[in-house]
Amino acid sequence: MKEQFQLKVLDILTRKHFDNTRVIAGQEGLTRFVKWVHVVEVTSIRNLLKGQELILSTGVAWKDQPSLFISMVKEFIENQAAGLCIEMETYISEIPEEVIAIANQHQFPIIIFQEEVPFVEITQDIHSVIISQQYQKISDLENYSQSLNKRLLTIETYEDILQFIFSALDVQIIFRLKNQEYEFVPNISSAEQAKILEQLLSTNEQGSGRIASVPVFLFGQEYALLAIYSADIPISEYDLLILDRTATALAQHLLRDLYVEEKKRAEEFEWLHGWLEGEHSLEDIQEYLVENGLTVKTNEAVVVISKLFPVKEKSNHDVTYLKLLFRSVFEQNGFTVFIVEKRNELIFILINNRAKKNLKERVKNSIDSIRNSEFFRKQTSARFTAAAGKFSDSLCEVHKSYQTAKETLRIQKNMSQQQIYHFYEDLHLYRLISQLSKQTDLQELASEYLEPVIQYDQKYNAKLLKTLKAYLECNGSKQETANKLYIVRQTLYHRLQKLENLLGEDFMEREKRVAIEFMLLVHDYLTASQPNKINQVR
């Protein structure tokens, strides 16, 4: 590791006022780093030490008290002080043997001044060096960042960035793209790799000891991992800053690559559109997958259409990054993804790439992850709904899934109970209503059953329609219905009597009840389909 900004106890011994000194204990600890100098002439210091301070003292606080001296040295060691410099003869004339033994045991340097020295001048001298190093650190860090940013304009692969940080720090670089193998710069043997990875995977603290890692985030999700390992000396704060800056540069480069790749995929539109329209044979589809270097494990597929509702004027920038987000999440959930952009819709052909056949669950998880992602909530202006078509066991029947996805999208616009996504297989009666509405005047049919109740509500604001829905949903349970509507049972009895008068005493008998329940769905569907009553769900 390049030892930038690493002031050691050994270096301080060469400074002014340290000519007439002697190391009497902890010789092996002279390579300890020094971050600051602290003068200690009191017995309570624990809360004042932050670690790596060089302690200066005359020993006045513990003169003639060997036990207190021992206690203070132990406290210095526990708080990770860099070392202790004591001015002799002013207040103390000898160092207890037990103190020397403890210092040697913990490799804690004890240095004695054999003459009176000016502590003020010592602290000024050493602090000037430390501050100068800090300024140099900031300067070098800025130079590194500027050089890296310039290189980003011409760098072809992320490997070039890994070589750049290696040149700057001269430590082992470890990098891993999500779900891929670890890469090492420079390359080392498998045995050495395994040893480093064991430490990396067992280390939770960033920058602790000789290994440090930082995640590389894209769209609020961890996309890669960058780590450094030093076999010789501990990792410094400067190394961590370089690591962080490099991770940011990697994120920018990887995002640029993904963006360019997504742009290229736009050229696939024509072929994919033909696939959605059923124009390609199974042989054509398989040939296309091979030409694009794609290997799929199954022939199971589903089409999902996402309808976008931009809050402001839609920009190509927004849509391209939205496609990146959707693709990334779907792929993480085990799908090979093809995307067709069509006006304000994104059409996804999802091919199952896992042995497990829980496609529906994984589609749900994907959409929920997208909706809850930080990128979608904070960095995009769009809202969306999603409609999943029929699940298919053949890649040449994707067009059927596409047609049913379009039908699902059309139906969900007219559903009173809005959700962010629907599946074709879950629509049941709504599919029947949709088909019937193309051939029959359902409004007139619904009126035959519900018009008396609707008119009564409009005239008296009696909430009978709401009561009827709740009563049917509770399977005729009066107690459950009252609880659901937050009314007393006497009020419910009064409303049910009114419903009997309007619908007939037999409205809860099987066939009539089924018809009424169906007509309630029809009423909701037709009401929601009226202009200005469609609510988009974020």
Automatic annotation (TrEMBL):
It comes from Neobacillus citreus. It holds the Pfam family HTH_30. Residues 11-130 form the Purine catabolism PurC-like domain. This is PucR family transcriptional regulator ligand-binding domain-containing protein. InterPro entries: CdaR-like_regulators (IPR051448), PucR_C-HTH_dom (IPR025736), PucR_C-HTH_sf (IPR042070), PucR_dom (IPR012914). Gene3D superfamilies: PucR C-terminal helix-turn-helix domain. Residues 464-521 form the PucR C-terminal helix-turn-helix domain. It comes from the Bacteria.
